[in-house]
Amino acid sequence: MSRSNKMFGDIAFDLLKDLQRSSQTIPGFDDDGVRQVLEEIKAIFEENVAQASNYNSSGDRSLWPLLNYRHAALQRNKRCLLAYLYERMQRIKAMRWEFGPIIPSDIKPALCEPEVQFFNNYSKSLAAYMRSVGDGQGIDLTGNLRPPKSLYIEVRCVENYGKFELDDGEVVHLRKNSQHYLPRAQVEPLVRQGILQHIA
Amino acid sequence: MSTRESMSDSENVEQALNEHDMITEAVLADAYEEDGDDEDAEPITAQKVLEILETAWTNEMCAPELLQHQSDMLELMMSQVAHMEEQMKDLDKNDFRFVVHQMELERIRYIMASYLRCRLQKIEAFTQHIINQDATYDVADKRLSPEESKYAQEFATNVDEYFNKVATRYMPNQQRGEAEQRVVAPNLMSHVFLKANVAVSGVIVGVDDEEVDLTPGSQHIIPYQLVSDLIQRNQAKLI
Amino acid sequence: MMNYFPNYYSIEDIFVTQEKVECKVNTRLQRLGFLDAGAETEDLEPGRTINLPLWYIKELKVNNAYFTIAVPDIYKNVHKAVCEAETTHIELGRLHPYFYEFGRYLTPYDRNHVIGRIIFETLRQRVRHLLDISKNDGDTKHEHRLDNIESKLHEAGVRTNTLYINWLQMSGNHIRTSQLVEEHQKKRKRADRSDDEGDNETDTPTSKKRSTM
């Protein structure tokens, strides 16, 4: 524990504060912060174990308040750290729903290896679940996001996408700034991904 | 998290199936009997299945906790949708009926997807709580469908692994009770809007055992926990 | 759905419990001197006044022998306004970002039982006002006037109101680019632009419309 003005638990709290403050989709995993918190937890724990055994043998209660305080600090550290991971997990989950099963390449460096693994497992598990619904008939839950009002919608291409084949075999060329009138259900994923813009 | 859902119009989906020349009741009845072991399984209409799903959907959206799964109804509806799609292949795409039916299908699909998404959100939020709770229920009363149960287990394992690799394995021994402390549970005392389907007498509505009789169609604002059994027994629905 | 119900991972609750509370030390506390910023002693001396984080306070028994918890001035200060039913003018958010939650945690330690009454009355008086401003000024930011829970209520109110208006105008049904993707693209665009200044923002909508029906 550094003897600066930092109190027990402050580093752990900063992890959360930085995460909340960041405007990025997900800021880089704070390796260093996490390591420091884990070290603080370990240090508090070891000191407490040493003094607790002392207290047990001598029956001297005078250090009880200190043990108590440090115990609360240890729990606080754990809570902040796990809340940090939990909040990152929420954002990683959201990415699966918004971006699909592949992590965008410019976001990937922000994740640590266990987080990438979490994403992949989550993605696989979700896909397997969606396939299994209704005794194996399957349903895509990442689509059908809004109550349908009309079957066809007018869209404008935001970027050059290339050929897009509709369910009935018809092929449309999606070129930047071109406008189309297409079946809502089939183009919804492209609108969600920002390739098309729904204009009417 | 809640951005995934937009609470929606319970549009006249009823109408969707009303004029349905395409729905063949026989298909449904077959599917139903194939499935259930109970001899006195009544044939059920597609209309009825949709009504049940619709109610399950609004209840699920409004209830703080996960409600009982409806996989039988869902499965029936999905085969029905597939069946309708099959039949529609023979229709001219510019036929007015084609457009109407296509709309109906889209709407049903939306309801089913929205319903299942809502359940997944709860499963992910209250994973351990739901798993523990389901372990104490009889097979017939389980909240999770078999598919959801598998998903919940996988999710719990996945989260544990992530937490463990990054943090918990470096932490000193956990104390008793610490794991329980981390279990996230729904707030069952949150208030809900309720509409009585039938007359219910002697509903306890306050801490001091104050009782109230509900008349059919009457609406109330009340802490969820006090009426959760009415929802379960279909004596009331959430709105 | 608006439902404030803190759990173990709830960041808001962690923020509330990070707040400091003024306490008086009642008895010598060995080796806790580091809690007293103004002293160099190894032990914490009786009679000193120190600030302790709420996450520690809430683990203490109400009648613990070590510390006496002082009711923060902010609650005493609104007392007069509460009595005169004038709380809607208070810039509550400036007084304390977590006015209600913070107060709720301290209620058991308040021997005169005023905090509980104050926060209840304050909210009761202000809720009507909140409802009104949610309806009237959707976009105006009330930076320091609302406490955390109040701004959430306000947001929810504005959102519901917007949904309602959209619904009236039948305009709420556009599929949109998902929020995450949108933010992500903005970022990417900024990066692109610094790479090759210029030509990727030629937004000339071609009116060529193709029906694929």
The description of the largest β-sheet of chain A is: 3 strands, antiparallel
What is the total tally of β strands of chain C?
A: 4
Q: In sequence order, what are the helices and strands of chain C, one letter per element?
A: HEEHEHHHHHHE
Q: Which oligomeric state applies?
A: heterotrimer
Helix share of residues of chain A? 40-55%
Uncertain segments of chain A of ≥5 residues (pLDDT<50)? none
| Spatial sequence of strands, sheet with the most strands of chain A | 4-1-5
- Assigned CATH architecture of the largest domain in chain C: Up-down Bundle
Give the DSSP E fraction of chain C (strand runs of 2 or more residues).
5-15%
Overall structural class of chain C, as computed from helix and strand content, comes to mainly alpha
Number of helices of chain A: 5
**Backbone CA Rg of chain A:** 26 Å
SS strand fraction of chain A? 5-15%
Whole-number tally of structural domains of chain A: 2
Global morphology of chain A:
elongated
The radius of gyration computed from the alpha-carbon positions of chain C, rounded to a whole number of angstroms, is 25 Å
* Series of H and E elements of chain A: HHHHEEEEHE
Main location (chain C): nucleus
Domain DNA replication complex GINS protein PSF3 N-terminal (chain C): 9-60
Region (Disordered) (chain C): 178-213
GO cellular component, one term (chain C): GINS complex
Explain how this protein is built.
Chain A has two domains: 10-135, Methane Monooxygenase Hydroxylase, Chain G, domain 1 (Up-down Bundle); 152-198. Chain A contains five helices and five strands. Chain A has helices at 10-21, 31-58, 64-99, 113-136, 184-192; strands at residues 152-157, 162-165, 171-174, 179-183, 196-198. In chain A, the strands form two sheets. In chain A, strands 4-1-5 form a three-stranded antiparallel sheet, covered by helices on one side. A two-stranded antiparallel ribbon of chain A has the order 2-3. In chain A, α1 packs antiparallel against α2. The longest helix of chain A has 36 residues, at 64-99. Chain B has two domains: 8-186, Up-down Bundle (Methane Monooxygenase Hydroxylase, Chain G, domain 1); 187-239, 3-Layer(aba) Sandwich (Ribosomal Protein L9, domain 1), CATH 3.40.5.60. In chain B, the strands form two sheets. In chain B, strands 4-1-5 form a three-stranded antiparallel sheet. The longest helix of chain B is centred in the middle third of the chain and has 30 residues, at 96-125. Residues 1-39 of chain B have low confidence and may be disordered. Chain C is mainly alpha-helical and 213 residues long. Chain C has two domains: 14-70, Ribosomal Protein L9, domain 1 (3-Layer(aba) Sandwich); 71-172, Methane Monooxygenase Hydroxylase, Chain G, domain 1 (Up-down Bundle). Chain C contains eight helices and four strands. Chain C has a three-stranded antiparallel sheet with strand order 2-1-3. The interface between B and C is medium-sized, with 14 and 10 residues. β4 (179-183) of chain A pairs parallel with β4 of chain C, so a sheet runs across the interface.
